[in-house]
């Protein structure tokens, strides 16, 4: 971080900043090899049906196990990967790995959807859809069982390119979700044209639900609009029973958040999904669903 050193006017060129830049460069260098070195990992967070709290999907979220620094958040390294042309390679690995995991879960009798997050850069790759289709085929996953989450700001980029990419995803039969909905500036016109199946309301609106009438009205409006457009609505970042109750009352279809489960390993998720009733003594076991 930039520190003011002795009131010097050249404070922007402090050693602290130089170190940050060197660290960035080192991180980038390490990231170039992270896929081949097997340092990337997917954790999974369930989405649940708002009516019965049964699992509907598992969203894959990337983690980087850096040999020296430990776990690094995607918020740190995805933007770095996007800036330096590494996101496509990483994104291809994510799709392959998520399909492989989906196949393993199916063998264990779990048929929930698996969701992957796509970067805008990936949408611009001509081989994105062929790669997804090859992975689905290799692992025998029906296309509609794979959700691709695309951030609203990327989805609303109303260029011919983005629209064509969406059209190809839809033609391939994938389940398209507009992530972080409410943070971009969707026009109803664009939204209507997009062949999406799901709107995922951004956590910022969910956070305020318990105490803000305004947040409630916004979520209500989104749910109504989604109904008109025949889209499913998912709420992300649900942390409290108060938020859950409002969302259920408003007719939100699916819920996701720490109240139900944090992102976890594939093995832990299989155990979690398997235990669909809280233990009789009411204690919070691994599969306990807050009620
Ligand atoms: P996202 O797709 O909107 O994912 C939701 C983020 O919120 C995740 O953070 C998740 O761990 C966190 N979260 C879930 N429930 C709660 C909750 O109840 N409370 C709070 N405070 N947070 C919650 P994470 O895993 O750090 O991922 C951050 C972002 O990084 C994701 O946002 C997504 O945009 C991006 N990302 C993650 N994995 C990938 C990937 O494989 N590819 C791409 N392109 N982006 C990814
Ligand atoms: Mg997402
Ligand atoms: Mg999101
Ligand atoms: Mg988000």
TrEMBL record:
Residues 24-277 form the EAL domain. Keywords: Membrane, Transmembrane, Transmembrane helix. It comes from the Bacteria. This is EAL domain-containing protein.
């Amino acid at each position: 971080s930039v520190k003011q050193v002795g009131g010097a006017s050249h404070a922007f060129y402090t050693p602290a900043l130089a170190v940050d830049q060197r660290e960035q460069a080192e991180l980038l260098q390490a990231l170039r090899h992270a896929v081949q070195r097997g340092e990337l990992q997917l954790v999974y967070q369930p989405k649940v049906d708002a009516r019965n709290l049964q699992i509907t999907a598992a969203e894959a979220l990337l983690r980087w196990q850096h040999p020296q620094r430990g776990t690094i958040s995607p918020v740190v390294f995805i933007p770095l990967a996007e800036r330096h042309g590494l996101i496509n390679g990483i994104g291809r690995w994510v799709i392959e790995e998520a399909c492989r995991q989906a196949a393993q879960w199916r063998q264990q009798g779990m048929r929930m959807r698996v969701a992957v997050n796509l970067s805008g850069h990936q949408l611009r790759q001509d081989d994105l859809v062929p790669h997804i289709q090859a992975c689905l085929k290799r692992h025998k996953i029906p296309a509609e069982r794979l959700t691709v989450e695309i951030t609203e700001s990327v989805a609303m980029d109303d260029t011919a390119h983005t629209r064509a990419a969406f059209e190809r995803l839809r033609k391939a039969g994938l389940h398209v979700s507009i992530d972080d909905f409410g943070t971009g500036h969707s026009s109803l016109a664009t939204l209507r044209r997009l062949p999406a199946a799901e709107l995922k309301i951004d956590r910022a609106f969910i956070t305020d639900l318990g105490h803000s009438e305004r947040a409630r009205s916004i979520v209500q409006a989104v749910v109504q609009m989604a109904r008109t457009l025949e889209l499913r609505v998912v709420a992300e970042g649900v942390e409290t029973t108060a938020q859950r109750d409002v969302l259920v009352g408003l007719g939100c279809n699916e819920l996701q958040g720490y109240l139900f489960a944090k992102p976890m390993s594939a093995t832990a998720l299989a155990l979690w999904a398997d235990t669909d009733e809280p233990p009789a003594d009411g204690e919070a076991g691994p599969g306990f669903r807050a009620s």
